[in-house]
Structure formats: structure tokens, C-alpha cells
């Protein structure tokens, strides 16, 4: 029976550390500030944004949520970003996905100053991650939070066989880079992969980020493997379920994240942590 | 017996196409220009730089080689790069490796304007590659040249199991990104990997870039696989040899690059091709 990786508990600990860092920074005259821009009225986005705001306030981060109407133009968002880029009191800027179709998301990503890019999506930061730069730079929060979990649960990374299911820019690709930088052997499998379970069955560390509920079953798991489930799918009854079939995988795996209470809380804790890091690096 | 992937012949073809593009651009008033900066007097570097110059001239690219003494300071190189960044007649800038130890290579890489970064090493370009951006951007020439070879020899990429041996910023990592963008399943193995041949033996496409002569033998190859050898090692007799043990691998593989005459000529052809692309994109 796999040990549970308690993301909720670990996130709490990280948040306490972040709160302590905020206190230290404030004593030095720096008040970390996060700006979240939300466009339109997507219901799920509104919940995410409210959760971020609440968490920031709890931690002592100044949080500003900028709500824009659905018909906002690209130029208007770019101009707003430019304003926050120039505002020295702002340390982290993020634009909540999804954006209305008239907006070029890649252009928005490029517009945020790399030093304030709290999501780590700006190509300059992505490039530093993939080049394993020794500079300070922000990294996509979900995979960064997963690295924090793996370290906290003392999962051996160097030489481990890590398999990532999914190749998104937000999770799969940066996860691959982080694990490669940590000297794991890294394989990225995805929708074009033939016989996916041939790969997953050899994985010491398996990270699943596909958005397909219960895709990975127990027979696709190496006994003792560490299984990280990034999925957040709602079934017909409104019940939250991961990309990993928890019931069949838990008896086989060595460590496993639950859904909810695994990756989710770590992502938001990492966002807060990274806001404070950006503030620190801005000194 | 594997089919030979004739990099020399293909490079010749690419060079002819590039030459034709130069003629077209010149008729539009754009004369593609490449600047190569070389610091100190490393003998191998001097040969590479001379080869690049000769090839550029053959193709009709204006080629300037800037030679700087071994004791050049970082500030001097940065100031020179800045001058070329601002010079509208220059389309591609590269700094030959290795650099003297007083120079921070990463800082040099960041200083070259992304739009003139003919080596594709600037983090912004690296980030676009890893995010599979739909914009135009330069890519590290060796892996880009390998993609050209794979396409010319009609190697199926989508769904293929691609294994890359080596995780350098110049070859292994960008190669992984290019193959992932082309929908291959991608594994990166390296010095920390346990039982490397367990991975290579499953590879439909195997790219080897380790700098270890004859590392990969025939028993580590899947029958019919496409094997790309990036190695350029000189043995005790001054004989050039790859990272792949050609004699034992050729009977097993489906397609294989020789050393010399495989990846090498494609890298320089790609550098020329990319200089002209940068000139075109600058319009």
C-alpha cells in the first residue's frame, strides 16, 4: 500500500515558510505584491483567482485582482501589463487562463517582464529552465511544486527513470526539464505514443498530466514507483478525480498523491513562494 | 545492412537551396551577413571558423570573422556584440566556443539579440523551441540539421520511439525538444542513467551525442533503427571516429550516419541556411 504524499500538509508548511519570508522582506522595506489579471467571466477561473487572492492575503502578500470584461482587446491587456511591468511595487504578474479567443495568449506571455513572470511562461524563463541556467528565474508552478514534493518525500531523482505522461507547456515539458536538470533519465509520452504502458511500467517516478480521468491503472505501474497525479477531472456526480486510477494504483505504488489534496495545494503554495522569490530577487 | 545517410550530399543540396535564397534576397536589396567572433587561438576553433567563412563566401553570404586576443575582457566582447546587434547590415552573430575562462559564456549568449542569434542559444529562442512556438526563431544548428536529415530520409517521427544519448544544451536538449514537437516519444539518457542499453535497444530513432568514442555497439541497437552519430572523436592515430561503433551497428540498423560525412556537414549547412532565414525574417 503506497504512502500518501500529503500535498495539503506540505503546502501548509511551505505557506508558513513563505509567510516568514514576507515578514523578513517587509522589515527590509519590500512588500511582495502579486497582480492577477482575469478576463471575462469563466466560472472556474473566478474560483481559482479568488483562492489565490485569499491565500496571498493570508500569507501577507499584497494581492491585486484586475478584472477585465470579456470583450477586452489585446492592446488593452498589453497596455495594462506594460503598466504593471513599470510599477516597481509589483513583483509578480499573471494572466489567468483561459483567455477569450480574440487574445493571443503567447503574445501576452511574452509581454510580461521575465523578472515579474510569476507563472514562468515567458520564453526567456523557459529557455533558462531548459538550459539549466545557474541564474535565478521563475518556473511553472505546478512542476516546481511537484519537485518540492519529491524532495520533501526524499524521492531519489539522480539516475531514476522518470516518465511524464503529457507534453503541455504548463506541466509536461517543464516537468521534463526539471527532472532532467536533477539528473533523472526522462521520457515524455503523449497521445502519439504507441503502447504507453510499456513506458509507464518501467517508471520509478511517474507524473501524469493528461486531463483524462483514471487513464493510468494499477497494471501500468512499477511496484514501488512514486506516482504524481496532476489531473483534476470532475465526474458526472461532480466528484473530483485524477488522471490516475487511485484504487488500483495505490496497492502497487510506493508513494502516491491523492486528488484532491496532492498537487493542487502545492501549485498555489508554489505561486505564493515564487511571488516572494521574485520580490527578493528584485532587490 | 543499414542505408547510409549521406550528410555530405544532403548538405550540398541544402547549400544550393541557400545560395538560391541569397540570390532572391539580394534582388530585394538584402545581403545576408554573418559575423563570427573568435577569442584566443584555439587551433580547432580556428579551423571551424575558417570552414564557416569559406562556406559562407561560396554561398554568397557576406562573412566577417572578428578575431580577438586571448586576454579580451567580457566587457569588450559585450560591447562588440552590442555594436553588431545595432548594425542593420548584420543578420547573424555567433561566438565560437570555447571561450577563455575570464568570459561568462552564458552572459555572452544572452547578449546576442534573439533575432540575430544564429546559434539559437539565447534563452528566448530556447524557450520558444521548448514551448513549440509558432513564431519564427533560430534553433541550435546541429539538431536542426539532424531534423533536416530525418525528413530527407523519410524517417517517420510521429509516434516513433526516439532516444537521445547526452543532455547538452547544444545537441541533446534541443534535439529532445525538436523530436517532441514532431510528436515522437522522447527519452533523454545520460551519464546518470542506469542500464543505458535497455533504452537504446528500444529506440526507433537513436541520436548519440556524448563525445565518447564508439560508446554505442551493435548489441545496443534495435534492428532497423535510424542511428544518428553526432560524435567527432579523434583516435590515437588522428583518425576521426563517432560515438557509435559503426562496424558493429551498421549490420543491425536500418539507416545510419557515417563519421565523417554525416552530421558534420549538415551542421555547417544549417548555419548558413539559418543565417539566410534570419535575414529573411528581418525584412
TrEMBL record, chains A, B:
<dbReference type="InterPro" id="IPR000672">
    <property type="entry name" value="THF_DH/CycHdrlase"/>
</dbReference>
<dbReference type="InterPro" id="IPR020867">
    <property type="entry name" value="THF_DH/CycHdrlase_CS"/>
</dbReference>
<feature type="binding site">
    <location>
        <begin position="166"/>
        <end position="168"/>
    </location>
    <ligand>
        <name>NADP(+)</name>
    </ligand>
</feature>
<dbReference type="GO" id="GO:0000105">
    <property type="term" value="P:L-histidine biosynthetic process"/>
</dbReference>
<dbReference type="GO" id="GO:0006164">
    <property type="term" value="P:purine nucleotide biosynthetic process"/>
</dbReference>
<keyword id="KW-0486">Methionine biosynthesis</keyword>
<dbReference type="InterPro" id="IPR020631">
    <property type="entry name" value="THF_DH/CycHdrlase_NAD-bd_dom"/>
</dbReference>
<dbReference type="Pfam" id="PF00763">
    <property type="entry name" value="THF_DHG_CYH"/>
</dbReference>
<keyword id="KW-0028">Amino-acid biosynthesis</keyword>
<comment type="similarity">
    <text>Belongs to the tetrahydrofolate dehydrogenase/cyclohydrolase family.</text>
</comment>
<keyword id="KW-0560">Oxidoreductase</keyword>
<dbReference type="InterPro" id="IPR036291">
    <property type="entry name" value="NAD(P)-bd_dom_sf"/>
</dbReference>
<dbReference type="GO" id="GO:0004488">
    <property type="term" value="F:methylenetetrahydrofolate dehydrogenase (NADP+) activity"/>
</dbReference>
<dbReference type="InterPro" id="IPR046346">
    <property type="entry name" value="Aminoacid_DH-like_N_sf"/>
</dbReference>
<comment type="pathway">
    <text>One-carbon metabolism; tetrahydrofolate interconversion.</text>
</comment>
<keyword id="KW-0658">Purine biosynthesis</keyword>
<dbReference type="GO" id="GO:0009086">
    <property type="term" value="P:methionine biosynthetic process"/>
</dbReference>
<comment type="subunit">
    <text>Homodimer.</text>
</comment>
<keyword id="KW-0511">Multifunctional enzyme</keyword>
<keyword id="KW-0378">Hydrolase</keyword>
<protein>
    <recommendedName>
        <fullName>Bifunctional protein FolD</fullName>
        <ecNumber>1.5.1.5</ecNumber>
        <ecNumber>3.5.4.9</ecNumber>
    </recommendedName>
</protein>
<keyword id="KW-0554">One-carbon metabolism</keyword>
<dbReference type="GO" id="GO:0035999">
    <property type="term" value="P:tetrahydrofolate interconversion"/>
</dbReference>
<keyword id="KW-0521">NADP</keyword>
<dbReference type="InterPro" id="IPR020630">
    <property type="entry name" value="THF_DH/CycHdrlase_cat_dom"/>
</dbReference>
<dbReference type="Pfam" id="PF02882">
    <property type="entry name" value="THF_DHG_CYH_C"/>
</dbReference>
<keyword id="KW-0368">Histidine biosynthesis</keyword>
<dbReference type="GO" id="GO:0004477">
    <property type="term" value="F:methenyltetrahydrofolate cyclohydrolase activity"/>
</dbReference>
<comment type="function">
    <text>Catalyzes the oxidation of 5,10-methylenetetrahydrofolate to 5,10-methenyltetrahydrofolate and then the hydrolysis of 5,10-methenyltetrahydrofolate to 10-formyltetrahydrofolate.</text>
</comment>
<feature type="domain" description="Tetrahydrofolate dehydrogenase/cyclohydrolase NAD(P)-binding">
    <location>
        <begin position="140"/>
        <end position="281"/>
    </location>
</feature>
<dbReference type="GO" id="GO:0005829">
    <property type="term" value="C:cytosol"/>
</dbReference>
<feature type="domain" description="Tetrahydrofolate dehydrogenase/cyclohydrolase catalytic">
    <location>
        <begin position="5"/>
        <end position="119"/>
    </location>
</feature>
